[in-house]
Design brief:
Elements (H helix, E strand, L loop, with lengths): L7 E2 L33 H8 L7 E3 L6 H6 L4 E4 L3 H22 L5 H9 L5 H14 L26 H4 L2 H8 L3 E4 L3 H5 L7 E4 L22 H16 L3 E7 L2 H7 L3 E8 L11 E9 L2 H4 L12
Parallel strand pairs: 1-7, 2-3, 2-5, 3-4, 5-6
Antiparallel strand pairs: 6-8, 7-8
Helix pairs in contact: 3-5, 3-7
Length: 310
């Protein structure tokens, strides 16, 4: 890749520490979902890139696990995703966290209960959130994967895959507090990004159409994030920055993606893959973070391509 120098690296073992320490519990909110492609490992780098800059509304149009949102705890935020079940779960955590916990604590963690929830497709909003959280916490590897008919098709995890961390570490209660002033919507990213205005901070973490290091990988929606979607996203990012928003985008490490987005700044970040259960056999994965500074500020000083951190 052109313009590379040093690289910002994730922790050597690639683990995402879920449970806060006694000292950190009051300072941060942990994501309540275990989400494939989640960015807990990248949060510290993203926060350094944002710096001390003040911003109006925080916008995240590919919400997923919401790691950066929970780390920042912005006063004003708009969180969205095309996955309606995901957004419904966030709404229920925001408004009915205690009732959710009561329902989850009453459910045994076993193959039969898991299979029953897998077969369900519809139901009241609270029940759909219970299903979503139960499957997320008990599925193999914490994966969220749907088949062509929209059915959940990840096998039962067993072992340490339980719902207990949700109440043991008060993940839902703390998330509910962080979400109190957030607006949530199940919309396409283009609609969400069209609302970004001067002074806003936008973070995009799309499902990568070009795989990490050229190995095919799609994260969680019924439909693929196509190359046409990438084109739309690139255009929307430039337009939002032209309106005065600061836009950060995580994306696949590939020359075609870099050329398409043509960002004023980009960073290459590296982490161990978490797809292999044996830590010693995990290969490293490179990803891009694109930076689109607000146009008014970007015009005042030249920007450097290929900025990296250690």
């Amino acid at each position: 890749m052109k313009g590379q120098s040093t690289v910002d690296r994730a922790s050597k073992d690639g683990k995402n520490k879920e449970h806060p320490t006694a000292d950190s519990r009051e300072l941060c909110v942990q994501p309540f979902l275990k989400w494939p492609g989640g960015k807990r490992w990248l949060v510290s780098t993203l926060i350094r890139m944002i710096g001390a800059q003040e911003y109006g509304t925080y916008r995240e149009p590919f919400l997923g696990g919401g790691a950066l949102f929970f780390a920042l705890r912005p006063k004003k935020s708009v969180l969205s995703d095309v996955n309606a079940d995901l957004i419904n779960t966030y709404r229920q955590v925001k408004n009915n966290s205690e009732e959710l916990l009561q329902r989850l604590r009453s459910l045994p963690v076993n193959q039969a209960t898991y299979d029953r929830f897998r077969k369900q497709r519809t139901g009241p909003t609270l029940e759909r959130a219970v299903r979503f959280l139960y499957l997320n916490r008990t599925a193999f590897g914490g994966m969220y994967r749907l088949n062509g008919q929209g059915g959940f098709n990840v096998p039962f995890g067993g072992g340490e895959r339980t719902t207990a961390p949700l109440w043991k570490y008060r993940l839902l209660q703390s998330a509910a507090g962080a979400l109190r002033s957030s607006k949530l919507s199940a919309v396409d990213f283009e609609e969400a990004l069209s609302l970004a205005v001067e002074g806003d901070l936008v973070y995009c973490d799309p499902t990568y159409t070009v795989a990490h290091n050229n190995n095919g990988f799609i994260r969680y929606n019924e439909r693929n994030f196509s190359w046409e979607d990438q084109k739309r996203l690139a255009r929307c990012c430039h337009e939002a920055a032209n309106r005065g928003a600061l836009v950060l985008v995580s994306n696949a490490y590939h020359d075609e993606v870099l050329r398409l987005f043509d960002p004023p700044q980009h960073v290459v970040v590296t982490r161990p893959s978490r797809l292999c259960p044996q830590i010693e056999h995990r290969r490293t994965i490179d990803e891009f973070v694109f930076v689109f500074p607000p146009r008014s500020r970007a015009a005042k000083k030249p920007v450097r391509r290929g900025v990296h951190e250690k």
